[in-house]
Design a protein that fits this description.
alpha+beta
Length: 289
């Protein structure tokens, strides 16, 4: 065999190996969260009811309630679902003729119809089946979830055939426009968690009586965000910034009740440290309330 042909064979083998590793990335990620036993001191069975009828058991672990995602979706939609591991981004998709959604375990959200919903907990494998947090799924499909006060039963209210909420149904387009821009201009190079933290501060201010009561006025309040003063607020946001903004509107929380953030490398943080309560640091930003 010639040297050129040997080199080609080696190259093909390397490509096949890399492709195989990428395809298995999602499966390996879930395998890392395998729970070997259904019922133990860490995993508790909880009866589950759909429109008043008993449909099976959910499992509670660390105050998060999980359901076998394929069984659950097939029951609600009355059609077969296929779970697939996707490359790139180590995503998982659940597909049927009726409805499909994507899950990104590493970034802790699920997505469908232009929406991005935080995952309350990381999807897990229990006895070989994939289990998802029920709160994230019901929110995504628009079902009502009721968990009684002591966590001993779960009620799901959902009418088959109900339209699945889309991004237009859930997000105010004007608010999304400006929140994604302030996230991008303030934290576009940081982690998704750091971007969510910036969005949280804006929405916390909207909810506070000490600040304006809408996204635009909070962002453009005088002397509050330097990216407004320097014109960076008008830059087109990237996809990650839009996802972070949507996650904020869906309830993703990275910084609690923080109302302020600073980059301590770019400004003197002594006033903040002396007059506010430090909540934590994410990437380049310190957060305060």
């Amino acid at each position: 065999m010639s040297i050129k042909r040997k080199s080609l064979c080696v190259f093909i083998c390397v490509v096949i190996l890399i492709f195989s590793l990428c395809i298995n990335a999602s499966a390996a990620l879930l395998d890392a969260y395998e729970i070997p036993a259904l019922i133990s001191h860490k995993c508790t069975s909880v009866p589950m009811f759909w429109n008043g009828d008993y449909i099976g058991e959910a499992y509670e672990r660390l105050d998060i309630f999980y359901v076998p995602v394929i069984d659950f979706m097939e029951l609600l939609f009355g059609t077969s679902f296929q779970l697939e591991y996707n490359h790139p981004y180590s995503s998982i998709s659940l597909n049927s003729e009726a409805f499909s959604f994507y899950c990104y375990p590493e970034y802790k959200y699920i997505s469908a119809n232009g929406r991005y919903v935080p995952l309350e907990g990381i999807p897990r494998k229990i006895d070989g089946r994939v289990w998802f947090p029920i709160s994230s799924i019901t929110k995504l499909i628009g079902a009502q979830l009721i968990i009684n006060d002591d966590g001993t039963s779960i009620q799901i209210n959902y009418q088959p055939g109900s339209p699945i909420p889309t991004a237009k149904d859930v997000y105010n387009e004007y608010d999304l426009y400006w929140l994604s821009r302030v996230i991008f201009s303030e934290s576009g190079t940081q982690s998704l968690e750091g971007m969510i933290g910036v969005g949280n501060v804006v929405l916390n201010r909207v909810a506070s009586s000490r600040f304006p009561n809408n996204v635009y006025d909070v962002i453009f309040q005088k002397n509050q965000f330097s990216v407004v003063d320097y014109g960076m607020i008008y830059r087109e946001p990237d996809q990650r910034s839009i996802i972070a903004a949507k996650l904020c509107f869906e309830g993703a929380d990275a910084v609690g009740d923080s109302l302020y953030f600073i980059n301590p490398r770019l400004c003197n943080g002594s006033w903040f440290m002396n007059n506010l309560t430090f909540r934590g640091r994410i990437g380049e930003h310190d957060f305060f309330v």
